[in-house]
Structures are given as C-alpha cells and as structure tokens.
Fold this protein.
Amino acid sequence: MVYLYILTGVLLLVSLIKDRKKTARALKIATKKIYHILPAFLSMLVLVSIILFLVPNSLISYYLGGSGKLVGVIIASVFGSITLMPGFISFPLCGILLQKGVSYTVLSAFSTTLMMVGVITFPVEKAYFGVKVTILRNVMSYFIALVIALVTGIYFGEIM
C-alpha cells in the first residue's frame, strides 16, 4: 500500500511540473468530490459498525464463515444484491468481515454482488433502461458474481 502512496505522490509531482493550472484544478475537483462522498461514507461506516457490534461474532462466523461455504456464498450474495454500494464502502466492510473469520470466497460473492447487483436501484434503472434490460443486467451480474466467487475460492484454496 505504501508503494501506491509513493507512486501517487510522484505522479502528482510530475503533473505539477507539466501543468500547474490543470493539476490545481484537478485537486480542487477531487477535494470537492471527497467532501460530497465523505458524509455517505461516514454514515455507512457508522451504520455497519453498529450492526457488526450488535451481531455476535459467532452468528457471523456460523452463517458466513462456517464450514458450509455454499450456504455462506448464497447468504452473502443475497444480502449483497439487495443494495448497491461503491467500492470505497464495500472494501472496508469486507476487511471487517475478513477479521471476523469470513472466507475469501464468501467475501468475493458479497462484495461483487454489493457493487454489481442492485435490487433497491431497480426503479431508477427501470426508468432509464426498461424492465427487460434491468432484469437481464441484474441476473447476469448475479451469476457473474457467483463465478467470480468460485474462481476466488479456487485461487485461495478454499474450494477443492
């Protein structure tokens, strides 16, 4: 992770040297975007923290991290499909769940469905794309997420 910070700093310096005005404008835009995203991020972080505090570790481990990976994948993918979250919220949440003993396979199913499938966003998508395309996109995204979870499980040696 430190390498990414160093690389970002070096590239920012290169950008500053090449065109100071564009870099300043880009940093101003980035700062505005962070301020717009920050309330949503913090509220989701607080909400997730409260839920994870109230739900016992044993319950999370039993349903998501237990020996039945298939059941964990299905439960995680269904919960992930209900809402749609960006990666900056999904990944820290998965990090917390990983510390609680949830496998990479289950986390993969959860995070990919969380970002790709959105039951709550159905009305908005339907308005833009139509019912048929929205259903097709969500179903395809769900199955792609399951394939990604399977590949993740094989890669980390959790399956086979």
About this structure: The chain has two domains: 1-54, 56-160. The radius of gyration is 19 Å.
